[in-house]
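Structure in, sequence out. Go:
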């Protein structure tokens, strides 16, 4: 009944089904514990509603990540002589991948686009020490890094990882472009190095690496279009302003 009505109160539900109101309260509480329903206050009344499917899936993924050991694995599938697809899974595999392509792509262009909610997912996958090591390696190897994200992404980074993250990120990027939050309400990220494309789902500890020049060129053109039609911000100065004098 609740699924059909989208939202309701225990009193309204009791009128629609032959179940005592105390039993309805107990049932709703159990469903809430499982993440299947949510409750909110409206005019001093509790309104119960069915949880969004995406919210339930995220809760299940979070639980799996806590229960399943994060060993770090990868598998490569060679499609043609010029196309490989490699699946990197696990926090260790992701960390090793980042350090590897920072070491082997020195002086090359790195383009990326990050969703707002990717920050919390990174926190669950790797430590702040590891993230600072990645940023330091990108700087010292001279990668030409370009990022498309929102202003909130940087604010959340500092809020979650602290000022040490800001200190290590200063000087890491050649340019940053801010776009509206409405285009970034997701946890995924994209990274491109030449003909190597990385599709990232940090919540699932998953990097999909695609080596194909035509696919990479298409996405580079799309990211370049966004850059050409948005303002470049001085992220180094913004981060410096956040630090204590």
């Amino acid at each position: 009944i609740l699924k059909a009505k989208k939202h309701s109160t225990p009193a309204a539900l009791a009128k629609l089904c032959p179940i005592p109101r105390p039993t309805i309260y107990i049932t709703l509480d159990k469903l809430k514990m499982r993440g299947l329903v949510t409750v909110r206050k409206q005019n001093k009344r509790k309104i119960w509603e069915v949880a969004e499917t995406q919210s339930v899936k995220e809760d299940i993924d979070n639980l799996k990540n806590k229960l399943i050991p994060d060993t770090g694995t990868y598998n490569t599938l060679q499609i043609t002589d010029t196309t490989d697809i490699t699946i990197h899974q696990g926090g260790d595999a992701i960390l090793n991948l980042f350090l590897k392509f920072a070491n082997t792509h020195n002086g090359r262009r790195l383009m990326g686009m990050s969703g707002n909610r990717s920050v919390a997912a990174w926190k669950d996958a790797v430590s702040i020490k590891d993230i600072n090591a990645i940023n330091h390696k990108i700087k010292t190897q001279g990668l030409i890094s370009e990022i498309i994200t929102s202003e909130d992404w940087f604010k959340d980074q500092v809020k979650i990882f602290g000022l040490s993250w800001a200190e290590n990120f200063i000087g890491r990027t050649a340019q940053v472009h801010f776009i509206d939050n409405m285009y970034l309400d997701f946890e995924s990220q994209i990274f491109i190095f030449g003909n190597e494309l990385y599709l990232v789902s940090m919540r699932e500890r998953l990097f999909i690496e695609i080596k194909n020049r035509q696919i990479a060129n298409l996405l580079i053109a799309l990211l370049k279009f966004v850059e050409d039609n948005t303002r470049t911000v001085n992220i180094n100065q913004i981060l410096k302003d956040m630090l204590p004098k």
